[in-house]
Amino acid sequence: MELDAVYLQLATLTEAPDSPLRRLPRSQWTAAQRHAVDLCELMAVIDAAVQCGNPLERTARLAQLQAEDVARMDAALLAIGATTQRRALARCYHFLTRGLQMLDAAARHQQIDERLHASPALLYRLAGPIDTDELLHLLQGYLRRCSALPPLMLPHPPPVAAVRADATIITANQGLRAIYLLRDTPASRQLLDRWMQRRGGAVYFSQGMHRHVPGYFELCHLVHERHRFHGPFRDGIAGELRLNATAHAVPFPPLSQQAALEWQALAQRFRWAMGQASIGTQTVLVWTSDEAEIVAEFEPGLKAVATRCLVSAFRRLGHPPYPVHGLCFQEDQPYGTAALVAADCDGTAPWLLAQLNIGTGHWWRKASARIPAVACCRMPYYNRDSLLVIYRGSDREAFLELWGHLSSDDNVTVAAASGKLDPEMLLQRMTETSRSAESDAMRHLAGTDGWIYEHVWGGGSGEHYAIFYSADTHISRQVEQVARDSVPDCWITYW
């Protein structure tokens, strides 16, 4: 726990917008501040040399080291009394660069890469004594003696009420098919239960079974008894079959243009149907019908509880051109590209929200130093405190570099947002949503005139996808098009 606090104090020293290290040139820093920055750079190098899983990134980082950089790091180690680490640093630098002083950058990079491949274990043994945890302790003591360590920020106050954003009501390109996305709340459950009872129940289809159920609560009980699953539908569909129609258990169609034929097939079998879909970390209920009379009968009950349960309302999904606000889509590296597309539409460099804690290491410091920090606060993240920082993504390479560890445990990126949003307001909204990637949270972050971009974990390493929301449907369409162009057979769902 003590190391967490030391890390946060050091991150505050280097990343807080009002820190002298952000406001003043290096020539106006105190000796203690210069040593702190040089040791942060050393710890970033150690992260790249010992902990980085990307060989190309590791080689590139080590090849950038110059003699003057090592001299600054050595002076900082001397100042804090880290004698063992000084010797280890000298040995590592000698191993990497002996005989390469007269080579150009490309040849130097190649030679270092060959040495790392020839003796992969040697660098680990040489760098082993440079323990970053020990360096943090020594640096903390030194900065305290020099009165250069900032106080630990007070935690940001938690939200006073749950966040609830208005639903997206899309009326353009009207068609017969109505699709309503509903939060799984008591209001939506009561709405669907009353609807099913009015229509004489529904038939539930799932793998290996179909059964008539009189109401929604009986449906939930049936699903739970069958699957031991606390959810409304799992992999089934409930609805009212057309006369003489037959149906079998199939997954509910995804909310995408590619699924137009699946939606058509569903409408041919059911007068109305219910299922479920996912929006980021949120599971939503889906109600649909192609019959105007059925829709007209369902809508009054929906309107009465819309503010408590409606997420989005679509008409004739899958027939472009179609205005869409929310997207979930597959994205390959470089991650963050979709946010830059949205920023180009905005005409303003985006905000980048990063969360820094002891688990994220120091690899990000070289990139963060190239972009301005505009706001920060302390907030909890799972079981440890973090420093949430908002940067202006004015350097596109640094922006993408910070998104580059998205699949790793030391990832720092949380979200990107429209540069037109007020950063202090965005910081407040982020603490209110507690980093949730649900529909209400995304709309709350974007506001009425912005956009927000995040990634959602799918369960394992590298298993994540992008989630995006914009109040401007033109921006969402541009992001969708780039996603389709950059990933072959890219899957995209709407919300």
SSE arrangement:
Blueprint: H1 2-15, H2 20-23, H3 31-51, H4 55-63, H5 67-80, H6 83-97, H7 105-118, H8 120-127, H9 132-145, E1 168-169, E2 178-183, H10 186-198, E3 202-206, E4 209-213, H11 216-227, E5 237-241, H12 260-269, E6 270-279, E7 282-289, H13 292-309, E8 310-315, E9 326-329, H14 337-346, E10 351-356, H15 365-368, E11 373-381, E12 384-392, H16 396-403, E13 413-417, H17 423-433, H18 439-446, E14 451-457, E15 464-470, H19 473-486, E16 492-494
Parallel strand pairs: 1-8
Antiparallel strand pairs: 2-7, 2-8, 3-4, 3-5, 5-6, 6-7, 9-15, 9-16, 10-12, 10-13, 11-12, 13-14, 14-15
Helix pairs in contact: 1-9, 3-4, 3-5, 3-9, 4-7, 5-6, 7-8, 10-13, 14-19, 17-18
Bin the strand percentage: 15-25%
Low-confidence stretches: 160-175
Main beta sheet, described? Answer: 8 strands, mixed
Based on secondary structure, the structural category is: alpha+beta
How many alpha or pi helices?
19
Distance between the termini: 41 Å
> How are the strands ordered across the major sheet?
1-8-2-7-6-5-3-4
Mean pLDDT: 83
